Amino acid sequence: MRAGEGIDRLAAMAIPITPPEFDPALIARYDVAGPRYTSYPTAPQFKAEFDEAALREVIRASNEEPIPRPLSLYVHVPFCMSPCFYCGCNRVITRDVTQADRYLERLYREVELIAPLFDRDRPVRQLHFGGGTPNFLDAAHMGELLESLARHFSFSHAADREYGIEIDPRFADGAYIRNLGELGFNRISVGIQDFDPLVQKAVNRIQSFEQTREVIEAARASGFRSASVDLIYGLPLQSVEGFSRTLDQVVALNPDRVAVYGYAHLPEMFKAQRQIDATDLPDAATRLALFGRALEHLSAAGYVYIGMDHFARASDELVLAQRAGTLQRNFQGYSTHGDCDIVGLGVSAIGRIGDSYSQNARDLIGYYAALDAGRLPLMRGLQLDEDDLIRRELINELMCHGTLDKRAFGARHRLLFDEYFVRERQRLVPLIEDGLVVESPREIRVTSRGRLLLRIIAMCFDAYLDDAAQAPRYSRVI
Amino acid sequence: MQSKPMAGRLPEPRSPMADDGDETRFCGTCAFSSACIAAGYDKPELAELQCLVEHVGPFRAGEHIFRTGDPFRAIFAVRAGTVKTRMVDKEGREQVLGFYLPGEVIGLNAIYPEHFPCDAVALDTAYFCRFSFPAMSALASRIPAVQQHLFRMLSKELGTASLLAGDHSADERVAAFLLDLAGRYAVRGFSGTRFHLSMSRGDIANYLRLAAETVSRVLSRFRSQKLIEIEGRELELLNPKKLREIGQALLPE
């Protein structure tokens, strides 16, 4: 960072949020693979050269800032009781609950190794348990894990702390959720995907509306401040009628946030997906109609489209942050706590500390071996250079706020925007012709037509995408 | 490998780097130029006087410019970067004595003992002018203005201790520290309201005899009171007047 950089970040000016325009023909034309930009550079750019010494140095430097950033802990629980066939996550299918003991033993070791590297006056403002299925851990294990984290890190007691957990309602009841509330969790994210029984059977995830409601109501009753749900469109046997009924049921559950992800069928990469009969998948037109239905239905029910896969109630912090120009991308999608250093704990977890990313070993064997040898289980990472930082901020602005003041951005990073991004602006030309983006001497602005194609727009500014080899590793953009 | 485009980059802003001199001209921030020029001496004539001014560096963050006990042969004017001076006691505890910015001189406290009584450590990439001290004192004996300048620098060096003296609150110390830095940057023609804090919070805390958490807590409070803006190590003084009121007990009139 150089003098003044970032300080005059778009002050609290209100940014109007353009509602997206749904044009199936346009979207179909841009139906190509693309990264989700939960990080920039994206994970395929992380390198093994970023080793334990580099990570320790990055953490040391982060402690020495005048006001060290608060911490955000991500804890990965990789186990699932049963395989959902659509899943592309890093997980291990088992019903052997003793696996949890073996895993937690190593996770505690990781916590003991990494926590002391952070100064104790850095509060954990955000905690997120993801998976796999975090509720694979029973109440006793969960209590023990929280206790370990609270002992080695400094948990925030501020009212605005966000301690969230992903829950599979098939394996949790009201009592379990109340216990999580007592442990300090205040946000819950519930997987639904689709309530249509035919679809549930085809993806091997039978989950009733009642199970789901029990979990969400228990969360509300025990003081959780926010409940979000995940849906997936593009699943086998999905129909617009069936998905409409699901959306009705979702609205009845009254979640604060809804994520509607597009299913990416990549059976050569994700073994579980080979269980899906490709002939059952909806065709491209139906896929789009499903998303269009979700957009229409959720908007009518009072939800605001944030961007990418995310919707939130108009009063939700995400919407307020987007209007205030302070929204950020993070690994869970969008976040209002972009000023935290993220510590990734557990197998395959990704951290973001200072100007670096780091990822743990992606399989249990490597993760266990490193910790058994007393080493941090780091597999790869990246120290961002100045160009990376410039592009990360640019992509963040476009994906979060849909508008970029070229002059202010150029001044902040000491660059002549139009010259520095000559190639990128050439790549934008067809998008401008299609009306996804407008460019003036002053700004780049995503139009209502472009709002559903943010990834395509962001890809124009990705310096690593010339490398064609990256393409098949990403899911389709919508 | 992708190529990182460099077209369209604007030149670096005038950073706190005093490196605009050459064979015949002084650097803008030279610790001695005003004294010498006032006395009618320009750089070529100084060279004739065999006053050896040698450019040294770069020193990387953490490298020593000199160590405690090293024989005293020269003083060093900072051309670019930031330096801390410190002592380490028998138990290995560090005591930060001061921070030096471009245009400022380190090593003056070694004149009498004839060995360095402290370490000087670069906090970021640092460059120096090394003034051979035997030559320097020879020059001072010929040019009264140079001698006066040396005395002035020495007394200023003694004066900086007053920032720490007495029983003052953390708010007073931190406010005075920020304003002291701002003033020193401003005197040398750099921005006195926006600058980079090269020193770690540990070093700031040690220097101000405060806990690191306290320094951060006070800075956070100043930020929420809109007295400063801070992002990473980039600092902006939004309300220097109010900060001066807070730190006034420790600041010169």
From TrEMBL, chain B:
The keyword Repressor applies. It holds the Pfam family cNMP_binding. Residues 1-20 are annotated as: Disordered. It comes from the Bacteria. InterPro entries: cNMP-bd_dom (IPR000595), cNMP-bd_dom_sf (IPR018490), Env_Response_Regulators (IPR050397), HTH_CRP (IPR012318), RmlC-like_jellyroll (IPR014710), WH-like_DNA-bd_sf (IPR036388), WH_DNA-bd_sf (IPR036390). Keywords: Activator, Allosteric enzyme, c-di-GMP, DNA-binding, Repressor, Transcription, Transcription regulation, Virulence. Its main location: cytoplasm. This is CRP-like protein Clp. It is found in: Cytoplasm. Residues 37-112 form the Cyclic nucleotide-binding domain. Homodimer. Residues 168-241 form the HTH crp-type domain. Coiled coil: none annotated.
